[in-house]
């Protein structure tokens, strides 16, 4: 067998994060000689999913090196969690929802990769509401998800309902002339301001709408906000009644990355884990790479991802496993709908405060994943909390976690078995093709899959394929022999 | 796999991975199971292959999603991706080749260390047609690798069986060439998958949850309605 050093590779892809893996999928039928390496001993890069042990060794590695995009990682097990089976967990670094109208799903379908992914419905979105007076308890308020829901909702006044209905009707057609005029003058202003001025929405209704955008700073512009709300509404019901987004079982985008790599391997790509690119030397139309495995390889093109933090903006994350089924979070609210496996809770800006009394500047989002996601054993849930990094963000995530388990626990607070904390930084952020070296931007922080992540992948594919690139062929493959359709007869 | 025509049986998917040294007959076992076919001098598998096949049990239908891996994979970087979340593994050796059992034992140890805690593992000694056990061998007995005596067996049934029992594995000797015992392996695996790992048992309502797993799965291939109702509120 030819050694890796003797082969003249067409492409070396470094890293198995989502973008690199999707590129491997896109090239899986190209006949190109592909070497796909990853300095880590696991797949998925920043989108990986970990067992408990994996998470612990990852956290140790992150603390030891103080470079790259991750910082301050730690794993804490509650004493009652000592006997937990490490491999019963698949904790996602990127628990990203995917809206039904996302181009990622159409690409997974046209490339046939979707056959190996199990998707689950994302159910209700909730708002954490502080009590209005001291006699009340904080509560989780479900955001009405259908027209019928809005009518039936007891938490909204009838005046507010009319405003909400008017807005929903507007959004579905917001890019067309009469509606266009209404928002264009507000395009770069915060969405909340637009909702207040044009639809007379009160602060609470504004919060409902902003929550649906999952905007990390809560200050999404009118232009971006309307696009995201439009996508949410038009995604509703596409794959079944009562849900707009789906989630890949076994760890979210990690699963998509692995399925993509498997497809590339079936096509003949060679995989090496624990082998990073240590040195790059460009000579003519060839790139010489030194791998950490000790091999030196030659390739026409190198694709890698930016992992140098260029600015100190980032997100704080807290992943908590709780020993309670939290059944009330996953109720079926539309007749005939399948039971959701994921629910989202937003803690609007200002709804949390540090022990020193400082109020939260940005929203905190908490994604609840039931054991149906395959991420934890039956009877437990995984909570993924995210907020923009600030000096107080870690503290605020703790507060949000405590408030949630106190409110959502059935009768008594759910016990927290495991907590993983980390900070993730942004990279330099732009797609850089420089001669034979293509660099993808650092991973997106978006809590709902952002289709702009797909663009650099397609551009890289075009560069690699050159004249042979026909847009209509991109990610468009027939089923391989033996991998049949669900409806096929097997006899 | 004759379909009994019983339409109401619950159906569940089971992810199964094949592991083993190169040229022990992993792909041939799958080809026999899926297509009831056999190819002499089959080309080595590149990377991996994905196939599906249904297995009808009296009370349910199991749809196997089979990942057939390449035995000559160079950097041992692919297998973890295939056995991740797998509910079953078929570890294959060639009963005419002692080194292949050693490799099989390595795979079993790796699965026990790294794969899902409840994974069902079957140890399969293939190429029974090259022995003179009198079962499953073709009349001419001249399959690739057979010697003139007609019995090329190098690993006794007892040796492998004892090991399998110690490790809690299912154990079979098969011939992908004649088809002997092939379906039996898959049926035994299907029967050994715990019912609880096939459906979601969640508190209330769990009693009628049979087949829930399939219900919950969102089907992307369904009629994706391009004009899906857009009248829903937020």
UniProtKB/TrEMBL annotation, chain A:
Biological process terms in GO annotation: small GTPase-mediated signal transduction; vesicle-mediated transport
Any Pfam family: GDI
Domain of life: Eukaryota
Matching Gene3D superfamilies: FAD/NAD(P)-binding domain, Guanine Nucleotide Dissociation Inhibitor, domain 1, Guanine Nucleotide Dissociation Inhibitor, domain 2
GO cellular component terms, A-Z: cytosol; nucleus; Rab-protein geranylgeranyltransferase complex
GO MF term (any one): GDP-dissociation inhibitor activity
Similarity field: Belongs to the Rab GDI family.
Protein name: Rab proteins geranylgeranyltransferase
Species the sequence originates in: Canariomyces notabilis
Automatic annotation (TrEMBL), chain B:
Keywords: Nucleotide-binding
UniProt keyword Nucleotide-binding present: yes
Location of the region described as Disordered in the Swiss-Prot/TrEMBL record: 197-234
GO molecular function: GTP binding; GTPase activity
SUPFAM superfamilies membership: P-loop containing nucleoside triphosphate hydrolases
Highest taxon in the source lineage: Eukaryota
Transmembrane segments: none
Keyword Nucleotide-binding listed: yes
Entries under Gene3D superfamilies matching the protein: P-loop containing nucleotide triphosphate hydrolases (3.40.50.300)
InterPro entries: P-loop_NTPase (IPR027417), Small_GTP-bd (IPR005225), Small_GTPase (IPR001806)
Protein's recorded name: Ras-domain-containing protein
Lineage: Eukaryota, Fungi, Dikarya, Ascomycota, Pezizomycotina
